[in-house]
């Protein structure tokens, strides 16, 4: 009963928050294996508005307050695609713009007035990536990441990375574009490759953009590029130097350093200017257990104020995708200091779709662990960068998206039915609480 023992230990440490919840409608029930990103949530700066994006394209902005009126809808719109990413562009004297990234036929990025939901601008990445050659989700144009940052001249701009995949027999190919948008939705510059971007991050000055590429199987053969944001010019590149097309899982700036989670060798890196390696740590490297060699991908990285946090995912076997065993560092969160020394580590217990942070607090939405199928893994966990676990909110369904800003935490729950149970757990819902 290892699962029960782990849960008991967590309960001894966890902090309780008062969450408010609201149903989001219907969505296909998840199964034992984790699914692709189907939902998005974003807390607007100031902490008084939360915006959700749903798989059917519905985007809803809700007021955050107290009492029965909290989470009332301010506006709702239909995005042209599955709404899978959300951020905001702030404006002087105005309510700003909510930007939504899509996965679908058009791969649309659109800006909506934060006060009214009126569409201010729209850009269809399909015009650059090309149309899907097969009617399946994995072939659709997909805006995988959007980031906003303020340049040296005080202008807040939007950056986005989009990709499309296609396969013809044994030939596999990616088409991708990185965009810099002006606040009005016009394009400042683009950067195109034949690799698959997976993550981006801006440095705090707004002068450099780091782009991580997960799959490199064409002419573009490097896992990390750093671009100058004024022009889109390439400043420098870095690669784990491993065989195969797997390269980078996530990137995160901390001052002039960049934390990188490597899918190539399953390690975590901290890089200095120009890609100089400051340190590297083994996260879920290939490990012999019994007659199998197992590994797990380091999927996420977040760095701030001299602390670097990595999160690993599911176990795989070198000779087969199927295994009953588990890598010892599967579903683990670990934080290191500026010298690469481990500060603390913990279990997240289920697959984490993505991380968010609110200063010193890191939030992890934890979904199912398909090899164990333990509902106790379904939770939102939040951690202090310096000391580790702060709190856990357990869910009946799986937590697939989370956001934190200005003392507000928001998470999305999706229903799940394990293939060998026949029981639906949880619902499609939004949960919001104050971290203060």
Report the CATH topology name: Methylamine Dehydrogenase, Chain H
From the helix content, strand content and strand pairing, which structural class follows? Answer: mainly beta
User: What is the spatial order of strands in the main beta sheet?
Assistant: 22-23-24-25-26
What value does the average pLDDT take? 93
Straight-line N-to-C gap: 35 Å
Main CATH class: Mainly Beta
| CATH superfamily membership | YVTN repeat-like/Quinoprotein amine dehydrogenase
Strand-residue proportion? over 45%
Secondary structure tally, helices? 2
Tally of DSSP β-strands:
35
Shape: globular
Biggest sheet, open or closed, and with what strands and sense? Answer: 5 strands, antiparallel
Describe the structure.
The chain has about 425 residues and is mostly beta strands. It has one domain: Methylamine Dehydrogenase, Chain H. The protein is about 5% helix and about 50% strand. It contains 2 helices and 35 strands. The chain has helices at about 1-15, 125-130; strands at about 20-25, 40-45, 50-55, 60-65, 75-80, 80-90, 95-105, 110-115, 120-125, 140-150, 155-170, 170-180, 185-195, 195-200, 210-215, 225-230, 235-240, 250-255, 255-260, 265-270, 275-280, 285-290, 290-305, 305-315, 330-335, 340-345, 355-360, 360-365, 380-385, 390-395, 400-405, 410-415, 415, 425, 430-435. The strands form 9 sheets. A 5-stranded antiparallel sheet has the order 22-23-24-25-26, with no helix packed on it. A 4-stranded antiparallel sheet has the order 1-35-32-31, with no helix packed on it. A hairpin with a 5-residue loop joins strand 25 (about 330-335) and strand 26. The longest helix is centred in the first third of the chain and has 12 residues, at about 1-15. It is globular, with a radius of gyration of 21 Å. The protein starts with a helix and ends with a strand. Residues about 1-5 have low confidence and may be disordered.
